């Protein structure tokens, strides 16, 4: 009996050892080849900054990006907009949010301050960044220019090439273009447009991308509300705005007729703890017959919904391979990666979170 019990123990230990050896160890993101470079996409950040308790998660994300600047060869950071929950609220109820509008802008500006003078970044403006939720304000006015301006980050200022006016008639990074040369010599123009851009903005954007000096650039358009989770262009929005263009109109009036817009990045959508309903992807051909990769990435309702932790720390990593065409997309959470007890949750491997595409 003693021998048999001991044998069973040995068998059990052997099985457990084999399981442990077979279990895939956690790995931090790394380049598939040392000659690759990456871009990082940050989703809507509003639910991190509207609660004081959630802001440390956003700090973890930003600190992680800066710490991997060299190991991942990060060349650009893009944010899909909705930087704040409410542009100008002065009396939060403590339930929907506990930070005033000014506090929210200071919070998100401070978070991006970790990237300032370290990495270039471009951020869109979302519906929550504007005063469209208050009937006492002119539609689509925002405090964005007060907290995000060209001098804030010298890495941005070096790349800034074009700007356009906001509803006040003042030049603002709400509508701006940045020129960047990749480590392998690929020319990019990053074009950021305001939420539901006005017709005049789309007209300006058409003129910019058609300029001779950008004809050989790959243009990446960054705008807030563009695709839904069914991979369809958003046709309408539930806001009483005049001269405002949703995703389908942006496609029809700008992207489709362009010869060099080859990628669109957006956010805006999401459902509580449902990763699939935070993302979208589709391809169409532009006027030059080039494939346009259109990607929506968000995470704002992950981690408990709109009153949860802000989004579980999810971000997206785009690795551009040295061939100048292939891009590997991965979805990762620096927040879950912090602890050995949660590292098994730090990667999302569904086919809508991890895939490869190629520029023409």
Automatic annotation (TrEMBL):
The signal peptide, as residue positions, is 1-20
Q: Is Signal there in the keyword field?
A: yes
Which keywords does UniProt give here? Answer: Signal
Please indicate if the UniProt record lists Nucleus as a keyword.
no
Q: Which residues form the Calcineurin-like phosphoesterase domain?
A: 69-269
Q: Which GO terms describe its molecular function?
A: hydrolase activity
Record SUPFAM superfamilies: Metallo-dependent phosphatases (SSF56300)
What the entry lists under Pfam families is as follows: Metallophos
Query: What InterPro entries does UniProt report for this protein, alphabetically?
Result: Calcineurin-like_PHP, Metallo-depent_PP-like, STPP_CPPED1
The record's listing under PANTHER family reads:
METALLOPHOSPHOESTERASE, CALCINEURIN SUPERFAMILY, SECRETED PROTEIN
What protein is this chain from? Answer: Serine/threonine protein phosphatase
Recorded source organism is Pontibacter actiniarum
State the organism's lineage. Bacteria, Pseudomonadati, Bacteroidota, Cytophagia, Cytophagales
């Amino acid at each position: 009996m003693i021998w048999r019990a001991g044998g069973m123990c040995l068998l059990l230990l052997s099985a457990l050892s084999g399981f442990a050896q077979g279990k895939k160890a956690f790995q931090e993101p790394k380049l598939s080849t040392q000659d690759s470079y990456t871009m990082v996409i940050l989703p809507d950040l509003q639910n991190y900054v509207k609660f004081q308790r959630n802001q440390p998660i956003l700090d973890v994300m930003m600190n992680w990006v800066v710490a991997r600047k060299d190991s991942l060869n990060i060349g650009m950071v893009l944010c899909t907009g909705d930087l704040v929950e409410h542009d100008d609220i002065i009396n939060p109820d403590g339930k929907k949010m506990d930070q005033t509008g000014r506090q929210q802008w200071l919070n998100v500006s401070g978070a991006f301050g970790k990237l300032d003078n370290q990495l270039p970044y471009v951020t869109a403006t979302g519906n929550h960044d504007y005063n469209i939720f208050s009937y006492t304000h002119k539609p689509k006015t925002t405090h964005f220019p007060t907290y995000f301006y060209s001098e804030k980050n010298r890495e941005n200022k070096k790349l800034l090439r074009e700007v356009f006016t906001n509803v006040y008639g003042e030049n603002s990074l709400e509508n701006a273009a940045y020129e960047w040369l990749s480590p392998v010599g690929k020319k990019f123009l990053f074009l950021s447009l305001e939420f539901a851009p006005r017709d005049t903005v789309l007209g300006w954007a058409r003129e910019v991308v058609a300029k001779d000096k950008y004809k050989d650039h790959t243009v990446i358009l960054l705008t807030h509300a563009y695709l839904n989770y069914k991979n369809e262009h958003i046709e309408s929005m539930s806001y009483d705005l005049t001269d405002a263009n949703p995703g389908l109109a942006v496609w029809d009036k700008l992207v489709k007729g362009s010869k060099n817009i080859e990628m669109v990045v957006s956010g805006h959508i999401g459902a509580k703890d449902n990763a699939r309903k935070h993302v979208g992807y589709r391809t169409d051909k532009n006027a030059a017959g080039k494939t346009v990769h259109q990607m929506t990435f968000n995470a704002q309702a992950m981690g408990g919904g709109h009153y949860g932790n802000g989004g579980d720390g999810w971000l997206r990593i785009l690795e551009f391979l040295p061939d100048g065409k292939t891009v590997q997309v991965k979805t990762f959470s620096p927040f879950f990666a912090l602890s050995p007890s949660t590292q098994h949750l730090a990667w999302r491997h569904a086919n809508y979170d991890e895939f490869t595409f190629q520029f023409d």
